[in-house]
Every structure is written in structure tokens, then in C-alpha cells.
Design goal:
It is built from five helices and four strands; from the N terminus they run E-E-E-E-H-H-H-H-H. Strands 1-2 form a two-stranded antiparallel ribbon.
């Protein structure tokens, strides 16, 4: 993954144009170049952003003075929403080395809560149906529904546990912190501390997780 030289959005490594601003990606081997003062990568002289670390630059390749005091918002999804962010959440279930922007994180968590609520309502319906037949034999359809729901719930719980932990790690990377902070979950106040951390905006300046 690299960054657009014009707007700083993430783009595919082999992309010829930026999907967000439409800028044609310049080949640094065919134009005048300079070096990014943040990561040292060779970049096009006309670039506004470093293609390697995404830092905004000024004419001489150094960080913009205003930018140095302001970290731009990072999100892998161009337009974060419940669907696209949750798809990203699913795709990166077993990935902990990346970053996860605040908007993508919270849209995905909202969708997770809705999925959990739906599952809870299904369980309520299942238990209610079984209770109706408490004094008689339970129909086979209700028993099959119970078994299927039990399997789906078990799979969902295991997946959600893994996905939430890796999402915590990627969100911590986005604010420049080590994923080892998730070990706070082993403590009584871990959830509260990590909740506060997930609310912190993206950190682009001097963030080693790019």
C-alpha cells in the first residue's frame, strides 16, 4: 500500500490513478525527485504527500509547519460507513500489523453491536418457542432451530473475540501505540482504558506504524 502524491489517500501499489482525487501517479524514476524528511523515501519533486509514509510536505521536502501540529485523519475506507467499515473489519480479522482509523473502527463496532442484538433477539424467540411447549413434546423444527442457533452463536462469539482484539491492536497502531496495550484487558479497568484510547484521533506525525 502507498499514498497518493496529490491528496495523501491510500492507493494500491500498482495504481496509475488515485481513486479519490483522480491524480495520475508520477513515476519517481522519470521525474525530478527529492527526499521525504520524515521517512527518507525518494519522492517526486511535485508531490504534496510522501508516497511511502503519507506525510504532507512543503516545497523542500520537510513537514509543513501547520501539519506538524496537526495529524490528519486516517481511514482505510474512502468513505467509512457501517457496511464498508464492517467489511474491512471482517477482512482484517486475523491481521494485527495494520492500522485502523477511528471512523472505520466505530462504524464496524456499531455494526457488531447490531449483529449481537439480532442474535440476542433470535435467542429470545427460540427460548419463547421452547417455553410454549414446556408441558408437551418440543417440535423437531424448534429443536433444529435451537441447534443451528447454538452453532451460529458459538462461531460468532469466537470470531468476535479474535476480531475485536486485532481491531484494538490496529486502532492502537493508528494512534502510534504498541498493540501490547491490549494486555490491559486482563485487568479490571482494561476495557475503560482501551475505550478511551479508541477515541483518540489518528496520529500521522512520527507514527512508526505506517
Amino acid at each position: 500500500m502507498k499514498y497518493c502524491q496529490n491528496c495523501g489517500s491510500e492507493i494500491e501499489d500498482k495504481a496509475l490513478f488515485c481513486a479519490k482525487c483522480g491524480f495520475k501517479i508520477v513515476d519517481v524514476e522519470t521525474v525530478a525527485t527529492r527526499f521525504c524528511s520524515n521517512c527518507g523515501s525518494k519522492i517526486a519533486a511535485v508531490a504534496n504527500y510522501c508516497t511511502n509514509c503519507g506525510i504532507k510536505l512543503i516545497g523542500n521536502g520537510t513537514l509543513d509547519g501547520a501539519e506538524a501540529a496537526h495529524n490528519e485523519v486516517y481511514n482505510e475506507s474512502v468513505r467509512p460507513d457501517p457496511v464498508t467499515s464492517f467489511k474491512l473489519f471482517l477482512k482484517d480479522t486475523f491481521k494485527a500489523s495494520k492500522r485502523l482509523g477511528r471512523a472505520d473502527y466505530w462504524w464496524a463496532r456499531l455494526t457488531m453491536y447490531l449483529c449481537s442484538l439480532t442474535l440476542a433477539l433470535l435467542w429470545l424467540s427460540c427460548i419463547s418457542r421452547i417455553a410454549v411447549y414446556s408441558n408437551s413434546s418440543v417440535p423437531s423444527s424448534a429443536g433444529i432451530f435451537f441447534i443451528i442457533l447454538l452453532i451460529v452463536t458459538a462461531i460468532f462469539v469466537v470470531w468476535a473475540l479474535i476480531a475485536n482484539i486485532t481491531a484494538y491492536i490496529r486502532r492502537l497502531h493508528d494512534i502510534g501505540l504498541s498493540g501490547a496495550w491490549v494486555l490491559l484487558l486482563l485487568l479490571g479497568i482494561g476495557d475503560v482504558v482501551l475505550l478511551i484510547m479508541t477515541l483518540i484521533p489518528s496520529k500521522q506525525i512520527n507514527n512508526r506504524y505506517i
